[in-house]
Amino acid sequence: MSDSPLSLAAHIRRELSIDQQLALTTAATRLQSEFDGTFGVATIERFLHSSYDQFAGRATIANFLPLLAERFARQRLNALARVEGKVSDGKPTVLFLCTHNAGRSQMALGYFTFLAGENGVAWSGGSEPGNEINPSAVQAMSEVGIDITGEFPKPWTDEIVRAADVVVTMGCGDACPIFPGKRYENWDLPDPAGQGIDAVRPIRDDIEERIRRLLADLGITPTR
């Protein structure tokens, strides 16, 4: 594969619109600029393509696909950089997993990011990612001043799990990935799927308490 930033265009599926092709090519160029000196063009394009594939079969708005693919590829490349020792900032890294990555794991990610600030890294994923974040979870988090509308349901990948110091599972059962040597915690929480705001608030509050205990265990002082 060529190392030219434009080489992506030759590998894009024919069924994509011109706008989508241009958006993916632009995404590849941005990622190549961000990860210059860390990963080669071939690796970046491979991650962008496979990230696109993760969403292509279930995205409700096709025009958002290139953006979702770029954001997920960026997360995966950051994870791979940690796995390969190309990032050594010493920040604890936590992965929150549930079934649909639409409620519990997204609220946990929101709380961790809000409370840890720049002192930790967190990601989330699902065994069967949904199409959107649970509106009741969004509302519940908004009530405590945390905006999770910028997140989106996504799967996990090997490099993301391998990069995590702690993997927190919430109901994904046997589908949750098991990697030897990883620290695992299982949080027994009700599934907020299909629940109204009154049912989700106690789940949210339980998650906050668990996140604060996890931060203390990791030696991270909450910023709030």
From TrEMBL:
Keyword Flavoprotein: no
GO biological process: response to arsenic-containing substance
Pfam families: LMWPc, Phosphatase-like_N
SMART domains referenced in this protein's UniProt entry, alphabetically: LMWPc (SM00226)
SUPFAM superfamilies for this protein: Phosphotyrosine protein phosphatases I
Cited CDD domains: LMWP_ArsC (cd16345)
Domain called Phosphotyrosine protein phosphatase I: residue spans: 92-217
The protein's name in its UniProt record: Protein-tyrosine-phosphatase
Highest classification ranks of the organism: Bacteria, Bacillati, Actinomycetota, Actinomycetes, Mycobacteriales
